[in-house]
Amino acid sequence: MSGHSKWSTIKHKKGRLDAKRGKIFSRCSKEITIAAKLGGGDLDMNPRLRTAVAAAKAVNMPHDNIDRAIKKGTGELPGVSYEEIVYEGYGPCGVGVIIEVLTDNKNRAASEVRSTLDKRGGNLANTGAVAWQFSKKGLIAVDKSKYDEDAIFLTVIEAGAENLETTDNVYEITTSVESFENVKKALEDAGIETTVAEITMLPSSSVKIENEKDAAALMRFIDAIEDLDDVQNVYANFDMDDELMEKVTE
Description:
CATH topology of the largest domain: Alpha-Beta Plaits
CATH architecture of the largest domain: 2-Layer Sandwich
Distance between the termini: 17 Å
Largest sheet: 4 strands, antiparallel
Helix content: 40-55%
């Protein structure tokens, strides 16, 4: 999701998902399995797997679960075969959404996504109708209260970051997908802790949400999609200030 700041919406999204710990573990496990299947089980040689494992550790997923998911991907343990699918659509207020799915039954996934969008005031769109409004980027957040901006700036720019923005609480660092690992490692080597570090979809423009009724409808819409078992990620091109976001996600 994209809102008043990239970090503010990620924070709220993570807060809601953390309340559903079993679901977040399931999503992490699926991502680890498919990353290992596509690129092998060696973290040093597989950036996607490395990122997936880091995300799993960040939510305190047990090591045994992580190891099992990797082995299912490499074929060392029997496991389900997942397929990656991306759906595009629109939600309340004309907000564009990209829905990333990992499923073992694409007919079920398609039916559930379509039904949920229809029930919540949205609709599916043709491939490409929404995707052009987004770019795949690396996004890293660093706690503003702990570090000097100049030190952060020099570290990330030298490592290949595209941009650094200062918000009320964090420094938001944007990278290309190719530079993400280099920038993340440069921060780690400098002893700088990150609040979030992930590959995401950032919108080039956003729909401004300004009243509580529209905000509540939009968040119910996104929550309903995220609750689907096969859905891994939902990205939406809206802009909502932090106060309104807090009010409708309490």
